[in-house]
Amino acid sequence: MCGICGIINASANHPVHQRELETMAKAIVHRGPDDEGFYLQSNVGFGFRRLSIIDVHNGHQPMSNEDGTIWIIFNGEIYNFQELRRDLIQRGHIFKTNTDTETIVHLYEDLGFDCVSKLRGMFAFAIWDQKKQTLFCARDRFGIKPFFYHSTGDRFIFGSEIKNILSIIPSPTIDLEVLDYYVTYGYTPTTKSMYTGILKVPPGHTLTLKPGKAPIISKYWDIQFEPDYSISEQEWIERIDHKLRESVKLRLISDVPLGAFLSGGIDSGSVVALMAQLMNQPVKTFSIGFAEEEFNELPQAKIVADRYQTQHHEQIVEPQSIDILPMLVSSYDEPFADSSAIPTYYVSKFARQHVTVALSGDGGDELFGGYDHHKKLSRVHNFHKMTGGLFITPMHLIHQLIPLSVKGSGISYYMSRPRETFAAYFGKWQETERESAYLPQIFQQLNGNKGEAVKTAILRASNAKDFLSRIQELDMRTWMVDDILTKVDRASMINSLEVRVPILDHEFAELTFQIPPEYKLRNNIGKYIFKKAMQPHLPNEILWQKKKGFGVPLKKWFKDDLKEYLADNIASNNSPLAAYFKPEFVRKLIKDHDTGMRDLNHKIWTLVFLNEWLVQQKEPVKTV
After folding, report:
1. Any catalytic annotation for residue 2?
2. 239 and 199 within one domain
3. Are residues 196 and 264 both part of a single domain?
4. Which candidate in 2, 5, 115, 137 is catalytic?
5. DSSP bridge partners of 218
6. Residue 89 pLDDT exceeds 90
7. For residue 33, pLDDT beyond 70
8. Would you say residue 606 lies in a domain?
9. Helix pair 601-616, 176-185: axis angle to 10 deg
10. Within this chain, do residues 74 and 35 fall inside the same structural domain, yes or no?
């Protein structure tokens, strides 16, 4: 795992200077503390920071082909590189190292842009083809690894993190539309960033560039749900077990110490169980817990650890842990309101004391329909169909017909408001709430743009034939890449830890896309088929327990330990939030939460993170 950055100027008359690349690379030294490297050729420059995992002594980057006409910088891991390498050697390629990086170089020589379709793993890389005078970049299928860029015509700048780019360009403006996305969802579900002009290469896409031209973004892979009803339940169970075992085995290749995150849930438990069966030594496992029982999964994690006799390590997160907020905000570069970033940071820091690589269980809920909203929205949708309604339409009239039992389930909120849709369900703040919160001039500048629109568009564009698959696709295109995987990447990389995600192996994912929805969500049981497949490996108290999630007891912290912090920061008239939000609204938000009128911890945390992000800007930022 590493950090990459680069500059492509439009003309050879404007050479890239190494000091700029050094500045960019220094900004991400945490991603690669072991080594540094640069490539400069007139108007083209690459920078690199390395965290050594494979072929520790010979993996220096940038790396080239035999004659030095193709150069690469690469962040990630290619798990099938040994198989690809054997084929390339048979075709006459000469290797200087045993790295997966060099495999990509030679694969590009043979296949050109199509090389990316052969890669099984997580990656973000850039290749400079000197003969063709072309930059070729790619990001893995699910966006496990990040890739940001900034293009002005005269100059193209890219990097693993936004801070790469910010280190050498003038302070950009805030994109107010993206700010509204953040307030709506708690993260930014878009290929834009909070900074105008800094963009993301989408997952499953490549970027090609000729110096001085506009970059071309192309799709090489996509999410495609095609249920196969000819396969029996037992055969699905066997296929899931076989393919996940294969995926985990591939991710055990490492020349440095390796372990796993272990929560109390089925996903990380399944990964640890298969690791234990595949390894010839005890698995090193790492768990984070809380004093508050509602959020503490340490007892469940220990059940799995004891069953497989892992070398288990535990740590408790305390309210004082919010002291890391400035560092956390700095590591994300953008506002990010998923409070589980706190325990994810601590479990990464904890694990890094013992290992350099950790496997995680991320992706199981998205692939198998494990979230509560999969169940709730499916009930809404089924009821909607029974009453003759259409998908994504106002449902306020139907609300009058809902039985009391359904009204009490927490899903009727979205049936009772004429402007709320299925897409709006995923928002932390609804449109009417945001209108009350923003200063009038800020809401006016939004000019009718709605944060919900980005998800509504994805739902409408989906080709999935069933409702559950459409919601899963929405999760994968937004929540998973821009929240879950962003969180894991930043929290682990700030601690120089590589995290591997076996459940998001694209071949395993493609298998799950063929599983009919009835096997994923059955009798209101999410992840039904996955739980059945993992039954030989995990005890029933883990398989069939109520889902907790990786949450933080913010509700209690904000009422007690952090009450003074809120008053001194986000509630103050001097807070930078006052340039966007009505101070009286923020104070009422805190008061309503404190008195117990409503649980508003998610909204408050959204403002806490945004406030600290605004504080950290080099100079007051303008909005567009």
Report:
1. yes
2. no
3. no
4. 2
5. 206
6. yes
7. yes
8. no
9. 150
10. yes
For β-strands 70-78 and 63-64, DSSP reports them as: antiparallel
Q: How many CB atoms lie within 10 A of CB 553?
A: 20
For 377-385, which contacts have Cβ atoms below 8 Å and span 24 or more sequence positions?
Answer: 377/411, 377/422, 377/425, 377/467, 377/471, 378/467, 378/468, 378/471, 378/521, 379/406, 379/409, 379/411, 380/411, 380/414, 380/415, 380/422, 381/422, 381/467
d(CA 35, CA 202): 28
Is 589 part of a structural domain of the chain?
A: no
| Tens of pLDDT, residues 475-495 | 999 999 999 999 999 999 999
Q: Which helix (H) or strand (E) holds 180?
A: helix 176-185
Regarding whether 131 and 186 lie in a shared domain, the answer is yes
Assessment of whether the complete model's pTM goes beyond 0.90: yes
Mean pLDDT over residues 181-185, rounded? 94
> What confidence tens digit (pLDDT) does each residue in 148-167 have?
999 998 999 999 999 999 99
Boundary of a domain, candidates 543, 567, 585: 543
Residue 350 CA from chain centroid, whole number = 20
- CATH code for the domain in which residue 493 is found: 3.40.50.620
Q: How far apart are CA 127 and CA 137, in angstroms?
A: 6
Tokens of residue 399, six digits: 């609300």
CB count, 10 Å around CB of 171?
12
**Containing structural domain, residue 28:** 2-219
Provide the edge-to-edge strand list for the sheet that holds 2-9: 35-41, 44-50, 2-9, 155-159, 148-151, 198-200
pLDDT band at 403 (very low <50, low <70, confident <90, very high): very low
Residues forming a β-bridge with 260? 285, 359
Same structural domain, 263 and 308 = yes
List pLDDT tens digits, range 292-338: 777 788 999 999 999 999 999 999 987 676 788 899 999 999 999 99
Both 279 and 136 in a single domain? no
**3-state class (DSSP) for residue 411:** coil
Cβ within 8 Å of residue 87, ≥6 positions away: none
Tokens coding 589? 């938000």
183 and 270 both lie in a single domain: no
What's the CA gap between 81 and 103, in Å, rounded? Answer: 6
Give the Cα separation of 257 and 253 in Å (integer): 10
The answer as to whether 555 is a domain residue is no
Amino acid sitting at position 109: E
Indicate whether 354 belongs to any domain: yes
Does residue 74 have a pLDDT over 90? yes
- Choice among 117-131, 371-385, 406-420, 484-498 with the minimum mean pLDDT: 406-420
**Does one domain contain both 83 and 126?**
yes
Helix (H) / strand (E) containing 90:
helix 81-90
Give the count of domains, the chain.
2
- pLDDT of 124 strictly over 70: yes
Which of 543, 559, 587 delimits the end of a domain? 543
CATH number at residue 110: 3.60.20.10
Q: What is the C-alpha separation between 158 and 169, in angstroms, rounded?
A: 12
Res 394 pLDDT > 60: no
Please count the residues of the chain: 624
DSSP label of 334: S
